[in-house]
Structures are given as C-alpha cells and as structure tokens.
Amino acid sequence: MTRTASFLAALLLASAAQAQVLEDTPPELEGVGITEHLDTQLPLDLSFLDENGRSVRLGDFFTAGRPVIVNLVYFNCPMLCNVVMDGFVEGLRGVDWVAGKEFEIVTVSIDPHDTPASALVKRDAMVKKLGRLEAARGWHFLTGEEANIRRLADAIGFQYRYSEEKKEYMHAAAIYIATPEGKLSRYLYGVQFEPATMRLSLVEASDGKIGSTVDQILLFCFAYDHKAGRYGPVAMRIMQLGAALSVIVLGVCLGAAWLAESRRRRHLSMGARS
Fold first, then answer.
1. Is 249 inside a domain boundary?
2. Rounded to an integer, what distance in angstroms lies between the CA atom of residue 9 and that of residue 85?
3. Is residue 89 in some structural domain?
4. Residue 56's CB: how many other CB atoms inside 10 A?
5. Any idea what the CATH number is for the domain that residue 167 is in?
6. 211-242: buried (b, 16+ CB within 10 Å) or exposed (e) per residue?
7. How confident is the model over 8-47, as pLDDT tens digits?
8. If we measure between CA atoms, which residue out of 125, 129, 122, 51 comes closest to residue 89?
9. Helices vs strands, H then E, count in the chain
10. Pairing relation of β-strands 139-142 and 230-233?
C-alpha cells in the first residue's frame, strides 16, 4: 500500500472510530484505532520531558478551572500528524481564547526516539502558524519513554503501532478534551475541527468555569451529536428555554403594568385630597 493509501485508510479509521467499528480493515491497520474511554482518569503521575528538556509530570498541566486539549502525534510524521496539527491550528484560530489562559494544550509524541529539541522545533512552528506567540506558554510538547507513552495511550484508548515496512507509526486522527481534574470529556475526530465544537467542548469540560453566558445557554440548548461530530440542537431544551423566557417576559410586562397602575391610583388619590 502506498503512503497516500495509508493516509486515506487512516482517515477512514478516524471517521469510523466514533462507532468503534470498521469493516475490512487494511492489514497494516490491524490493531490501530480509538476506543472511547469517556470519564476515565488520565494517569497524571506519568513523567515526560518538555520542549525545554525539563522533567515534568502530566499532572503539571492540569490546573483548577482550565480544561486541557490532549493530542498524540510524533514530530517526524511524514503525513497524517501534520494534517491533523494543521487542522487543529486552523480550528484554534476560530476560538478567541489563548492557551495558557483559558485552557492548556498537551501534545505528546508517541515516538520514544523524539527529543526535546525536536519538540521545541515543532512547538515553535505550530505557535507561529497559529499566529499567537503568547500561546507558547500554554502549549506543551512532551517526549518520553515507551512505557509512559503507552500508559497514556491506553488510558485514552488510542491504539497505534509501528510499521517496520513503512518505518512509520500507524495511527488514527483525533484530539481529546479533558477536564481540569484530568478526566476524558470529549473525543473530536478527523483532521478538521470546528471552532464552535472546540469551544463548547472546552466550556463543557470546564464545568462552566470558562466561557460567557451565551456559551452556557448554547450548552443548555445543544448536545454533542456523536454521529455528526458536533453539537446539535435539543428540541426539548429549546422549548424549555423558550417557555422560561416567555414567563420572564410576561412577568416583566405584568410588573410594569402593576407599577403604572399603582402610580395612576396614587396620582388620582392625591388629586382627590387636594
């Protein structure tokens, strides 16, 4: 199978991952895929090296109130990782928040041969492509030992393998949203990520600690559609919200009418006394 064919097969695998079923899997993609482990606690005790060569724990990037976007790639990937990262950056451009302020990003290499030096090169390239240099403080590129990489991948449900024939890693395409406590909240598949879906996923993972009132209303009226891979309207919730707004508007109108009537009666009463 050619490299382009491998890439297309990986995309098909990513598309089918939501259903966790793929028929007629190409032989070289056996044992490759994603099994959702929603609400699973990530192993925050895992040790890695960051892009500056410092020893860090995965838990160092999980702080109160900030959800975390996790993605697993490798820095010398010839094709799919680059497409995923480019799509991820494009989606981030549409989110008016900055990594390191409202949320964190943790990109972990699945290749134990990747080094902090290659991680730094990749980090700088992605931040430059994003066009927000301040995001460098909140986008962390980690490398580590095979055992720790596997533990993280297993916790996420990310199955990958190295092809000796192709001399590259075979894997699917997705990013993962985690809560500030390190629990998996949402899986977003593919190589393109809608800004609105990313934003609402982060708001949902933060339990409302980030985002505006509008975001909270949208989350009330919209629920994540696994088949479509995005948030869609929930008719019952919209009806409930509409009914609540109607009651509020009616209450305001009745209150205004009551105040007007009270003023009119006081005015008539004062006129009668005089």
1. no
2. 18
3. yes
4. 17
5. 3.40.30.10
6. beeebeebbebbebeeeebbbeeeeeeeeeee
7. 455 555 544 444 444 555 666 677 999 999 999 999 999 9
8. 129
9. 7, 13
10. unpaired
Model pTM above 0.90: no
Nearest to 188 by CA among 197, 179, 180: 197
* φ, ψ of residue 151 in degrees (nearest 5): -60, -40
Question: Residue 224: in which H helix or E strand, if any?
Answer: strand 222-225
**Among candidates 14, 33, 19, which has minimal Cα distance to 193?**
14
Judge whether 214 lies within some domain: no
pLDDT value, residue 64: 78
| Number of neighbours of residue 136 by Cβ within 10 angstroms | 17
228 lies in some domain: no
Mean pLDDT for the chain?
81
Single out the residue of 143, 165, 169 nearest to residue 78, CA to CA: 169
Q: What is the pLDDT of residue 259?
A: 61
Angstrom distance (rounded) from CA 271 to CA 103: 64
DSSP string, 107-175: EEES-TT--HHHHHHHHHHHHHHHT-GGGGGTEEEEB--HHHHHHHHHHHTEE-EEETTTTEEE---EE
> Domain containing 183: what range?
3-205
Question: What residues are paired with 211 via a beta bridge?
Answer: none
Q: How many independent structural domains does the chain possess?
A: 1
